[in-house]
Structure formats: C-alpha cells, structure tokens
Amino acid sequence: APGSYHHSLIVASLAEEAAEKIKLDPMLVKAGALYHDIGKIKRPEYFIENRVQNPDMHKDLKPSMSALVILNHVKEGVEQAKKLRLPKKIREIVEQHHGSSLVRYFFEKAKEEYDPEMQKIGEESYRYPGPIPKSKEAALIMLADSIEAASRSLKSPSETNLKRLIAEIFNNYLQDGQLDDCDFSIKELRAIASSFFATLHTIYQPRVEYPGFDFEMKKKKKTNKIKTTNDRNNKSAKKIQDKQK
User: Fold this and answer.
1) Secondary structure of residue 14 in the 3-state scheme
2) What is the model's pLDDT at position 117?
3) Which of 40, 139, 231, 244 satisfies CB 3.0 to 4.6 Å to 182 for a cystine?
C-alpha cells in the first residue's frame, strides 16, 4: 500500500512538527502517525490513495457496503496493533484517530441514491465507532490525517486555500464534538493550525526549473504551435498567390 505509506509519512511530519510547538512528546506522536492507518493493510485497494492504476473498487458497491469497508480499517488496525504488541498509547491512537466522525462522501452518496420519502438514511451507519480522542496526541493525529488527505484535493494549494482548508476542518471537528475530550486550549489549536500551514506550504512550494531540462515539453509545444501557425500562414499566402495568377 505505497499510497497509504506515503500518506502516513506526511501525517507524521505534520503531527511531529505541531507536537513540538505545543510541548507534546514528538516521538510518541510520530510513531502513532506512522501506525495510525495500519488497518488499511488488509484491503489497501479500497482506499483512494492506493488507487493509482487500479479500478474503482467502490464502483459496484452500495454506499453502505463501501462505508463498512472504510469504517472497518480502524477495527482491523487495532487488531493488528495488538498482534504486533504495540504500546497501549499507540493502540489508542489507532483506535481514536477518526473519533466518531462521519464518512461524509458515502453518506451523501447514500442520500442521493435513496428516496428520502421512502427511506431515511441514518448517520449512525456511516460514523466511526469511536471513541473520540481522549488524548491530545490522538486528536493531533486525527487533525493531521484529515488535513493531509484534504490538501490533496486542492487544485491550487495557494496560501489562501491552505489556510481556508485548515480552518474548515478544525471548525468541522469542533462543531461535531470530536475534540471535546482532549482538552486542547484555543491557544494550542491556533499553534497547531499555524504549524500545519507552515509544513504544507513548504511541501507545496513551487521549485525552480532545472536549467537545460524541459520536463513538461513546454518548448516543444511552443515550437509545434509556431510551426502550425507558420504552416497555416504559408497555405493562406499560397492561396492568395494562386488567385492572383
């Protein structure tokens, strides 16, 4: 599951940097982040970060079944953590890193597919079993996990878009009660948000072009465009000359 592995590395970078800013144990946070999605190992192809060339495994599934597969990665992660005899604090992070949050994509898809007059779609079937994060470490990883995943959906990861994304995700978790048991202060949440932005801004910072290389074939495209334009002009000139004869 190379996609999930890379995702976990970025989550670890986000969470570790933020942990230092609010005086949490950065090594515990980093270890928890690296293991948080261990439950995806069993069915990696059902998670979008691993679906590069693979077919969409959810295409022929009902939203309820798709949600069940996604929700189960937490339960399977806890089982894997126990088998590996990971420390209790790491197991708790694995168990709590989604809290009781809603798998919104498949919940909204279910609402679209069913007639609301015929059948009510209950959120309970589309929510993680919880518990909500009981420690700051687990809550920090929950935030970093969502921020990293959401940032990949940005077509333009500008400063404004990154700040807006971070603010919206923080607000959603606060309003949903997912941060009620972790005792974050407003000052700490601001420090975390600032740290996340700094890390993401560095990740998405444009790089200078390599001199002598044309990786995107810009020059070739430009040359071809000029050639096409010249060909058209030559044809037009020839037609004019033919008419004048």
Assistant:
1) helix
2) 53
3) 139
Reported as a single tens digit per residue, the pLDDT across 111-126 is: 888 756 546 778 899 9
Residue pair 130/97 in contact by the 8 Å Cβ criterion: no
Cα angle 64, 128, 88; round to 5: 140
Q: Are 166 and 193 in contact (CB under 8 A)?
A: yes
Query: Is residue 28 within 8 Å of residue 12, measured between CB atoms?
Result: no
221 φ, ψ (degrees, to nearest 5)? -65, -40
Please confirm whether the linkage preceding 131 is cis (ω < 30° from 0): yes
C-alpha distances in Å from residue 181, one per residue of 22, 42, 162, 184: 17, 30, 27, 9
Q: Rounded to whole angstroms, how far apart are CA atoms 42 and 236?
A: 64
Structure confidence at residue 221 (pLDDT): 56
Average pLDDT, the chain: 87
CA dist 74 and 50 (Å) reads 17
- 30-47 as b/e: b if 16+ CB within 10 A: bbbbbbbbbbbeebbebb
CATH number given to 2-203? 1.10.3210
More confident residue, 142 or 232: 142
H-type helices in the chain, by residue range? 2-21, 26-35, 63-83, 88-96, 104-113, 136-151, 159-175, 186-203, 218-244
Residue 224 vs residues 60, 139, 234: alpha-carbon distances, Å: 43, 53, 15
pLDDT 10s digits, 6-34? 999 999 999 999 999 999 999 999 999 99
Residue-level pLDDT at 43: 86
Q: What single DSSP character describes residue 88?
A: H
